[in-house]
Design brief:
alpha+beta; 2 domains; 15% strand
Length: 275
Amino acid sequence: MDPKETNLIKNKVEEFLQVFKKGEEFTQELLKENEKFRYRVAQLEEAGKYTGREESFKLHSLEERITLLEEENKGLIDRYRHVEEENKDFANRYLEVETENNNLANLYVASYQLHSTLDFNESLKVILEIVMNLIGAEEFSIMMLDEKTNELSIVAQEGMGLGACASIKIGDGIIGQATKTGEAYYRDGDPTDLKGVDYIHPLACVPLKIKEHVIGVIVIYKLLLQKQAFSDVDYELLSMLAGHAATALFSSKLYSQSERKLTTIQSFLDLLKDK
């Protein structure tokens, strides 16, 4: 890739990540302020319940006063516990949003790289990195459809053994059906349970589509050890990736074909000139 284009990509990525960073800092400040306000509200609410009790204390015995104070103390403790639980809930939601934002930022960077090149092999390399690093797949492949033969064949893979299928016809098995229908397939049950998972029965199969036209599939057979299951974010990332990857691969393939044709035509013209 041209150094100027590389620097441009880096600058764009930095700008995009700065936006997320500012949003993250702002959210953290809001959470801290929210926590302060909630504790203060709890104090005021409990104080309000016992306003005016001083006069009544004078009319009651010491034992009754102790009972009233114990009730007040118990009410404050219960209220604080409730506030703490709510704060934990807010913190967990924040972590979920932060994780999703980080993944979206990474996908933005990756998709920018995808669309910044017209080299087919480089596009495949970027897609492999996304599926491995963002989705957490250990064993997977990218298959492209040959519309002349109506067969899928592997154009790139990671971690796969010799038992991988050389080609699969549209409509055959899980992979062929996903290609035919254009609907993503995800295996039911625990993704870490690999009994019955092979190169014909994958964990997931996501069609690469341009609108409703399927040009290939991403097939996942095994996740990394630290990856226990597909999350909601994973489904979103795979769905978004399917569109970006399809466009990038289709464009780069057309460009490669046109480049070869232009080279052939130029060679033919040069030959005519020599004659």
